[in-house]
């Protein structure tokens, strides 16, 4: 295993040790039932569930159900049928090529301001936090300070994940804290229903971009970043699989790769394994798309996420930075760095 892969795997395992140890230990089973919970590891099983099995978007302990319970509903993840389709259509316009082109100058200004010449070590996390917050503010029409908005979205997601993921110790008051954090986020938004959009945009970006840049630095991939930043961005998003598990629930009986799924089963769709993030050269044709879901259940922000990372890699590449030090985040909802220090190796002072 390369040093880059080892370091990135450590962040992933550190974030939710119990859950991710279980997923690692069972990953050779394509589909595994544990009581009413079904672990879905294999890329074909993941694809079948997301494209063929009716999913209950409001069930307890799914992403949508949790969001609805915390905020009173009306969010994208818990909408169904026509309501969901029209909300997604609106979002596609904001997150499409024109939306990305409109946001790019702002992203570049933020990156230039933080990164400078990288002669001294620079922490990438605050830069990405402002980038993600500015994106969320633009998409939701919020006038809040981007860093404040991003921090509120991080806290809401972290409190929600802690209240709903398996843990070694009980967490009294978790629900209450999650509800309060969701409320604080909603108050920064003109339409509180956009809380899920802000949460999805901020937390995935903060998980993905610093980890991808650190991987690039540790593996010395800067020539590749210069030659093909979009291609490298897509590959690093596959290897880091920022949203590693999708908690969902089956809305009907189904059979997936010969395994029976029953209506009401809790499904843990392991995007990280569907993306074959554990391999440098994936064999499955859907591996690169898998971190973003698939078919009707795919991320509307995928192109924007790839464009953001490609811009970050392009901005860093001339400095050929090395990773000075990375520290995993102890409480983030998704496996992320709390700090990620990079320093130029291209300058005369190095
Ligand atoms: C590396 C970055 C990202 C990853 C890995 C990722 C992954 C995902 C996944 C797996 C879903 C679930 C799809 C479903 O089950 O319906 C999702 C949904 C979503 N994502 Fe992303 N995402 C990323 C970045 C973004 C960004 C940057 C934005 C917005 C700017 C965004 C906005 C959304 C929204 C709004 C949804 C909810 C869609 C719905 O319920 O229909 N994502 N994302």
TrEMBL record:
InterPro entries linked: Cyt_P450_CS (IPR017972), Cyt_P450_sf (IPR036396)
Parts of the chain that traverse the membrane: none
GO MF annotation list: heme binding; iron ion binding; monooxygenase activity; oxidoreductase activity, acting on paired donors, with incorporation or reduction of molecular oxygen
Listed name of the protein: Cytochrome P450
Family classification: Belongs to the cytochrome P450 family.
Organism of this sequence: Kitasatospora setae (strain ATCC 33774 / DSM 43861 / JCM 3304 / KCC A-0304 / NBRC 14216 / KM-6054) (Streptomyces setae)
Highest taxon, organism lineage: Bacteria
